[in-house]
Structures are given as structure tokens and as C-alpha cells.
Amino acid sequence: MDVLKEKGLTPLRVILGFSLVSTVLHYAHNVIRAADYPQLPGVSVLATQIVVAFAWVLFTVFGWLGYRAYEQRRYPRALAFLLVYSLSGLASAGHFLVGDVHIPAFWFATIFTDSAAALALWVFVTWGWAVLNRVTSRDQVSTQH
User: Fold this and answer.
1) Are 144 and 94 within 8 A, CB to CB?
2) pTM of the model
3) Does the pLDDT at position 98 exceed 80?
């Protein structure tokens, strides 16, 4: 029985679906309304838009690679890719490092939904690693004589 495949695939799909919707909304708003967000000194709005769009594509590729590897039962690789993908949600919280965010409530909420998706993915990855590294009593070698 493949516990990771049987018990993990549906929650992974839900988490990735939620994350995809949240990050598409948030990152798209970041690109379209970049001037509404706090800016890094010396970085133009256009440069910000390009970096944000590129970052979303790059993170999403890692999520897709993680999902594909998971489906193929290549779990260590999948979990590593998924951990990288989770950074897309954490990156959203970076707005608070630059300054006060003054945007409509819906878009403000997507900062938190991105972070919630990242946290859910961390929980999933932690569970996956725990299952992979579970040592049963049959696997243990006695050191007592």
C-alpha cells in the first residue's frame, strides 16, 4: 500500500488548487496595480512588474514539477519541489517588510491566503517526509544481545 499516494493525492490537489487561485489573484494584482504597493527604493514600477510576473511563473513551474513527481511516486523530489513552490505564498508576506500596504480589503486578504496556502503546503510536506522516514519495528535492528 502506498500511503502517500492513497492519502496524500487528494489533499495535495486541494492545497495546490487553493494556492494557484490565491497566487494568480494576488500576483496578477501585483503586476496590474504595482504602483499601489510599497516600492523598494530605486526599483521602477516596470521592473517590479517584470520581477513579480517572472517570480510567479517560476514558482508555479516548481509547483507543477512537484505535483507531477508526486503522481509518479518520486516523493523526495516532489516534496522538495513543493517546498520551493510554497515560497510563492511566503513571498507575498514580503509586502509588510517594505512599508504599509494600502490596497482594497480583497487584495489585502490575498496576502494572507497566499501565506495560508504556503503553511498548508508545509504541513503536507512535513507529513510526507514523516511517512517516508517512518521506521517500523521490522526495519529496526536490535543493538541488544
Assistant:
1) no
2) 0.85
3) no
